[in-house]
Amino acid sequence: MTNYEIADHFSLLSKLMDIHGENSFKSKSYSITAFNIEKLPKEISEMDDAELFSMKGIGEATGQKIKELLATGKLSALEKIIAATPPGIIEMLGIKGIGPKKIAVIWKEMGIESLGELEYACNENRLVAYKGFGEKTQESILQSIRYYKQNQGFHLWGEIDVLANALLQQLQKAFPKNLFSFAGDYRRQMEVLACIDIVTDVDNNTLTSYLQKTEGSEIMEEPSVLLVKMPSSPIIRFHLSDSTHFYNHLFKLTGSSEFVAAFTEKYTLADSPESEENIFSANGLAFIPPSMRESASVLDKAAAKQLPVLIQAKDIKAIIHSHSVWSDGSNSIEQMAKAAIEKGLEYMVISDHSQSAFYANGLKPDRIAAQHQEVDALNEKLKPFKIFKSIEVDILNDGSLDYSNDVLKTLDLVITSVHSNLKMTEEKAMNRVLTAVRNPYTTILGHPTGRLLLSRAGYPIDHKKVIDECAAYNVVIEINAHPRRLDIDWRWIEYAIEKGVLLSIDPDAHAIDGYHDVYYGVMAAQKGGLTAKQNLSSFTLAEFEKFLEGYRKKRGA
Ligand SMILES: [Zn+2]
Ligand SMILES: [Zn+2]
Predict the structure, then answer these.
(1) Average pLDDT for residues 154-162, to the nearest whole number?
(2) CA–centroid distance, residue 508 to ligand 2 (Å)
């Protein structure tokens, strides 16, 4: 069991205790335990008892609970309270904007026990009669329920990537003479998806009997499709083909419906092509990578042989946007730097949180100065690798930055992001973001919408206007690579490129483990047609330093 899973158990226990109105001192301590466990640099499952009980904030009772979880996979205190709670109440915890206290009122005072009832009650304007539920709260609960319902059954690409590949390998090993390929949303690297599509020429009976051996798998049959639900995985859809028509089917099942329709209208899809490459070359088209088979217009680019050479994971030369123990990260700057060196990277940008982010131990100016001393010493020690001094500076409510210019000018570059008061009208959000973009100290606009895929829509911005302004003020736009963010959305990359805006695939790493997220950023960026040249984190150290020179001129230094 991972630390995240252990933390989830404690966090749920704490929330359910609050809903039931149990001892608030205890529930608070469980929530703090969850918070601390999530931040541990080492897996608890690898610790012995002495190490476990010596950890800060882990008392005897909590330590025993962790041991119980690791030994049995269950927490009896949690099981007990779950059994005493209607499932619909637990589901409400997934709705943004209602915490345990509000849920307690909804359940105990309004007598509502399911999301459907709650939605109905919002529509009937019933919530406003209760303390703490104004019209605004009611409206936002309603929107959150709709958002939740729309996204149910969906998964992050980054969450199922490992599982999907393991499954494919397992199948190829079991049927070495047969053909298997991913298709659909997964193959097109869609950031969220409902199922994994696999095309194969294994026949129905053989595949069915093989899949039945997997414990807990449910198989449903549709004409030429097997739907398989396995424990803790999204639905897997096997499309049954024969060897002759395999690539014809693969092609049709990979592209978006818009893409496939446009192709079949203009070009010829052979009945039994030898390969996918063949389908394109037979029509005089350059090969369109699966990730780009979204819009009809990409076909024109392929006809004109003007497809971009897509960025690859190996093109990344740097970690831009990372957090250390100075704010809310889990590793020291030295550990982060050494891990980057091991990955063959040339430089990194350390960008801890700014002072307003008190919840993340954001840096006051005196701590920035102290951090710079540490960075200077490390730069001496780790040459030719270089650490650049930055801060992820909060964009305040009025769009101003979280430090005076005197502090900002001590930084090599500045990433500006919105972290607080995310509930804004588009007018407010735009004023906030555009003011920050116009600030001469802004180098990179961090996660431009603040969205969290499948859980939060982000504040509303007019993407075109933000991109235009970044073009006018030479501001780089981040492609935050965390699989739950992937923000800016890849659908806006093409427009940004058109306007000459640089993008930057940044992991926003809060630990060394976070470096891997760069890969998800690259996957999303490929969908937008990004090349290595248009990505700041692909710049070599020399190119990056030259880029910073231009930036210093901009801010008048
Ligand atoms: Zn951030
Ligand atoms: Zn960050």
Answers:
(1) 91
(2) 5
Among all ligands shown, which has an atom nearest to the Cα of 508?
2
What CATH number does residue 180 fall under?
Answer: 3.30.460.10
Give the integer Cα–Cα distance in Å for 163 and 418: 33
Ligand 1 centroid – CA 549 distance (Å): 25
Given phi > 0 = left and psi -120 to 50 = alpha, else beta, which region is 301? alpha
Q: How many H-runs (helices) and E-runs (strands) does the chain carry?
A: 24, 14
Residue with structure tokens 């030369």? 317
**Assessment of whether the complete model's pTM goes beyond 0.90:** no
The upper half-sphere exposure of residue 224, i.e. CA atoms within 13 Å in the direction of its Cβ, equals: 10
Only one residue has tokens 């205190």, namely 77
Please say which residue of 150, 176, 192 terminates a domain: 150
| CA 33 / ligand 1 centre spacing (Å) | 23
Residues with CB under 5 A from ligand 2 (ion): 392, 508
Residue ranges making up the domain that contains 369: 313-555
- Of 243, 241, 185, 167, the residue nearest 523 (C-alpha): 185
In whole numbers, what is the pLDDT of the chain averaged over residues? Answer: 94
Q: In this structure, are 385 and 372 located in the same domain?
A: yes
Task: For residue 443, report the distance from its CA to the centre of ligand 1, in Å.
Answer: 14
Strand partners, 452: 456
**Span from the CA of 372 to the centroid of ligand 1 (angstroms):** 21
Strands 218-222 and 318-322: unpaired
pLDDT at 176 over 90: yes
Do 97 and 212 reside in the same domain of the chain?
no
Q: pLDDT tens across 202-248, in order?
A: 999 999 999 988 777 888 888 889 999 877 678 999 999 999 999 99
